[in-house]
# Entry
Amino acid sequence: MPKQSQHGIVLVTTDPTYKAEGKAFKKTSWCLFCNEEFIKLPRHLQTAHKQEAEVEALMKLPKRSKEKDHALALLKNRGNYHHNMEVVKKGSGLFMVTRRPPPGQQISHDDYVPCPQCFEFLQKQMFKRHVKEGCQKKKEFNSTRKLRQEAESMMLEYRGISQEM
Ligand SMILES: [Zn+2]
Ligand SMILES: [Zn+2]
# Structure
């Protein structure tokens, strides 16, 4: 069940197998360029943002290839990251994470940090494993510690914004 924090921020997952109260969430993604929600993000990118260099590069990749899946996942992560920043700034809305929280655990958006390399939100205890094994974008940072520091400063950046409001 999504947890409603005192700020009105609801944690939801884009994992299509995740169900809350017997209902699966719509698997939507936020567009990086216009911060709108889409069920079919690739189609939207192709029609609305084909002039963007990143979208152009994405479209050049072979259909159904691993490279294309990865490039698309990175664009989705970045869109969701910007959306989540807005949610924290406003103090309400749906906070998107890729991985579902373990069943029965009461966790909130505060328990997540963004990966500075791929912008995926991870539970803090999963961070190290993600960087070592799960991250789609590797080797921009030379140590896990530096990455973790970068992640923390990304969080501070948007907590700072939310305190100003
Ligand atoms: Zn858009
Ligand atoms: Zn990552």
